[in-house]
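Key result, reporting period 2: structure in, sequence out.
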């Protein structure tokens, strides 16, 4: 058929070239407004997201630009131009019916700085839950604290689009750390992981924090208590005396038999930093003599099922009346 307008051969009643003169093929808004959070630096797309400015421009552009229904887009490119801040150039090319069409234009990007919902809630000190990190009958070590806080930060950052996923306060106390969390569900998720990974005990409590819109507001407290014993400690568990290999997984090795055991309700005989080294004086079948590391007298102790020779260095755990000899291979590996 022939184009009704120009008479050229075309498969359309009006060819693309003629149509391009009659209609607006591409409509670019003159201004694109982008919301940015002045606190966290995120941009608002459909949700607040941690993306670069050009991703934010691209997202908002795609929401506002419009094309003629017969236009087949092949490429859309945009880039900032010149010295003028916020001025962008855009090039669109594709096909309008049977006609290769391209269009270039410019638009202005205006970034409006506000505080996102998350940042305003966080700044306002909002929280739904407190995670109290404690250790049973001991202080929390710096290593433990570092890995626990690391986990809390990681989990919080992972929920970037959750407006309540933030830490509003962190209070260090003599007995541990209190972490105030915006979202109680996030706090729950974190505490579940802490109990699993660190073998910690969990106690939950709820209190009413006031009323809002006729509803009671609840605060959740999660007390996470790390176990008394740690890797390297010597513990008594039932009849067994064992060296803790993995406190989280409750794995230990029996210091007499050398066999692996699962801890049930261990109590600490000696912390790992209280283990002493001393020397073997004499070895019998079931007993051996060692040099008491404190009094330097010879004492007789039960012999573990390991090979000992007079003169060997050994570890000793002393707790109350218990004096336990530990073969070096268990401690030094
Ligand atoms: Zn035509
Ligand atoms: Zn923010």
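The corresponding designed sequence is given below.
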């Amino acid at each position: 058929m022939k184009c009704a307008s120009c008479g050229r051969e075309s498969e359309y009643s009006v060819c693309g070239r003629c149509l391009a003169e009659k209609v607006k093929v591409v409509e670019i808004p003159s201004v694109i407004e982008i919301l940015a959070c002045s606190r966290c630096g995120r941009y608002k797309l459909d949700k607040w997201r941690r993306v670069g400015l050009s991703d934010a421009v691209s997202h908002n552009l795609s929401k506002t630009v419009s094309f003629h229904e017969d236009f087949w887009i092949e490429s859309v490119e945009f880039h900032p131009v010149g010295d003028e801040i916020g001025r962008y150039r855009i090039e669109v090319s594709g096909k309008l019916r049977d006609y290769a069409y391209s269009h270039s234009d410019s638009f202005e990007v205006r970034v409006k700085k506000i505080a996102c919902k998350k940042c305003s809630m966080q700044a306002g000190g909002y929280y739904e839950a407190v995670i109290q990190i404690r250790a049973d009958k001991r202080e929390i070590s710096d290593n433990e604290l570092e890995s626990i806080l690391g986990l809390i930060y990681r989990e919080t950052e992972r929920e970037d689009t959750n407006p309540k996923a933030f830490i509003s306060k962190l209070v260090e106390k003599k007995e541990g750390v209190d972490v105030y969390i915006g979202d109680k569900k996030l706090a729950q998720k974190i505490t579940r992981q802490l109990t699993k990974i660190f073998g910690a005990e969990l106690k939950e409590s709820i209190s009413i924090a006031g009323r809002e819109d006729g509803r009671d507001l609840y605060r959740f407290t999660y007390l996470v208590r790390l176990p008394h014993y740690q890797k390297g400690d010597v513990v008594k568990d039932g009849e067994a005396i064992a060296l803790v290999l993995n406190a989280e997984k409750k794995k230990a090795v029996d210091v007499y038999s050398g066999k692996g055991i699962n801890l049930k309700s261990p109590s600490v005989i000696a912390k790992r930093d209280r283990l002493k080294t001393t020397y073997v004086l004499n070895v019998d079948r079931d007993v051996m003599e060692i040099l008491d590391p404190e009094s330097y007298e010879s004492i007789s102790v039960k012999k573990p099922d390991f090979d000992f020779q007079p003169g060997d260095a050994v570890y000793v755990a002393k707790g109350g009346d218990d004096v336990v000899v530990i073969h070096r291979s268990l401690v030094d590996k």
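Residues 234-331 form a domain with the OB fold (Dihydrolipoamide Acetyltransferase, E2P) fold (CATH 2.40.50). The longest strand covers residues 99-114. This case is discussed further under Risks and Mitigation.
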